[in-house]
Design brief:
Helix content: 40-55%
Number of strands: 13
Radius of gyration: 21 Å
Structural class: alpha/beta
Shape: globular
Keywords: Carbohydrate metabolism, Cellulose degradation, Glycosidase, Hydrolase, Polysaccharide degradation
Number of domains: 1
Number of helices: 18
Pfam families: Glyco_hydro_1
Strand content: 5-15%
EC number: 3.2.1.21
Organism: Hydrogenibacillus schlegelii (Bacillus schlegelii)
Catalytic activity: Hydrolysis of terminal, non-reducing beta-D-glucosyl residues with release of beta-D-glucose
């Protein structure tokens, strides 16, 4: 009874879902006309990915998608967030559409609808066609235009069956890990490039939003980013200012232009305070570059229909005096002792999700917020009888869903929650060493086995329907 009363806080049309992305699960990397992506190239760099793993086969979802939809039916979700692979539809990033690639997604969407599962489609989840990277990638302004063309083509063909569209997944990660720290594809380390990439990603969202709406009046168009609650490690003035600026940089750089027509002020101010750390002298005048970006952002005001929130952990930072220049070397990311952590080393802090949601409500007054990713990796292993008990993941899941409930009761317009992920998969630079799934995947046989958390989430979803 107590759980049923708690679940009553969720709207009746709430989206209960799971999430995946194309490169992490599909495999079939060279089948049916798919072209190479930046990740197909990156995984072949020595040392780039743990164990030398690749996404060539991944979870073989391209061939096993019907089985995976059946698992969703058993789970009881009413929504599924997945991404369309740009290089599967446009092997060169542009040109004629690959009909064989499109047919795969059309079949998947048709089957989802038959099962009563709402498709939520992400257009870009990091798998940029390699041909576009060779022409400059996201640092090339033309890539934003090509993305808008791609978005229009996909919506033109699939838009009658899909209402929920996400343009970009985690542009923060694309910018920082792909172009500043080099941990993700395309593996670059250039602060000037990173700021240009961030600006072009915003341009890509704006142009794709327009392109989608030109194709259909039925679309809800959103943008998903990795968001966090940032706290200073101590109360020193610079630490406090840095924490505020970093939070606004991560959470606001890819939203403020569409709500206010400008980039957030705090990180821009920080640039002027720490130019040597963020912008090496040989990179030119940072103020001039920022002023040019600000001027263009004034034309981008169009709030998304929903804000997608990917939340995993909070961030605790301190200023590193005398640290080396460049990248994020002026920051210390502090890990407090004695806190619960996942196998990724990430702090478990559902209160951080509540803080993020409340901040979004107060700053942007959005019509809808959707938790597009939230989940945890643990060192799952089958027991001798084949069962996979994962009590830590169950605690994580229940605590974060309860955080969403508390946010809704506080007036935050949350419309959905998507657990990451439906099944264990290729976890980027970690390869297959980290398991986030509700379904355990034996990568040798591709057999799927539900973990205890699968059934816990099933019961949680069922409880929201009441007696």
């Amino acid at each position: 009874m107590e759980r049923a009363m708690a679940m009553a806080a969720f709207p009746r049309d709430f989206l209960w879902g799971v999430a995946t992305s194309a490169y992490q699960i599909e495999g079939a990397a060279a089948e049916d006309g798919r072209g190479p992506s930046i990740w197909d190239a990156f995984v072949r760099r020595p040392g780039a990915v743990a164990g030398g793993d690749t996404g060539d086969v991944a979870c073989d979802h391209y061939h096993r998608w019907e089985e995976d939809v059946r698992w969703m039916e058993i789970l009881g979700v009413n929504a599924y967030r997945f991404s369309v692979a740009w290089p599967r539809l446009f092997p060169e990033g542009r040109g004629p559409l690959n009909e064989r690639g499109l047919a795969f997604y059309a079949r998947l969407i048709e089957r989802l609808l038959q099962a009563g599962i709402t498709p939520v489609v992400t257009l870009y989840h990091w798998d940029l066609p390699l041909a576009l990277q060779e022409a400059g990638g996201w640092a090339n302004r033309d890539t934003a235009h090509r993305f808008a063309e791609y978005a229009a083509a996909v919506v033109r063909r699939l838009g009658d069956a899909v209402r929920w569209w996400i343009t970009l997944n985690e542009p923060w990660v694309v910018t920082v890990m792909g172009h500043l720290t080099g941990e993700h594809a395309p593996g670059l380390k250039d602060v000037r490039l990173a700021f240009r990439v961030a600006h072009h990603l915003n341009l890509a969202h704006f142009e794709a939003d327009q392109a989608i709406r030109a194709e259909t009046r039925n679309a809800r168009v959103g943008l998903t980013n990795l968001m966090t609650k940032v706290t200073p490690s101590q109360n020193a003035d610079l630490d406090v200012a840095l924490a505020t600026a970093f939070e606004r940089l991560q959470n606001g750089w890819f939203l403020d232009p569409f709500y206010f027509g400008r980039y957030p002020e705090e990180p821009v101010t920080l640039l002027s305070l720490l130019p040597a750390a963020l912008w090496p002298p040989e990179a030119g005048d940072p103020k001039a570059a920022l002023e040019a970006m600000q001027a263009e952002a004034t034309r981008w005001v169009r709030p998304p229909d929903f804000i997608g929130v990917n939340y995993y952990f909070p961030t605790r930072i301190a200023f590193r005096a005398g640290g080396p220049r460049g990248g994020l070397d002026f920051l210390d990311f502090v890990e407090p002792p004695g806190v619960e952590r996942t196998a990724m080393g990430w702090e478990v802090a559902p209160d951080g999700l509540i803080a993020v949601l409340r901040d979004l409500k107060e700053r942007y007054r959005p019509e809808r917020i959707v938790i597009t990713e939230n989940g945890a990796a643990y060192d799952d292993a089958p027991q001798p009888d084949g069962r996979i008990d994962d009590p830590a993941r169950i605690r994580y899941l229940e605590a974060h869903v309860d955080a969403v409930r508390q946010a809704i009761e506080g007036g935050v317009p949350v419309s959905g929650y998507f657990y990451w992920s439906l099944l264990d998969n290729f976890e980027w630079a970690h390869g297959y060493t980290k398991r986030f799934g509700l379904l355990y995947v034996d990568y040798g046989t591709q057999r799927r086995t539900p973990k205890a958390s699968f059934y816990a989430y099933r019961d949680l979803i069922a409880a929201r329907r009441g007696p």
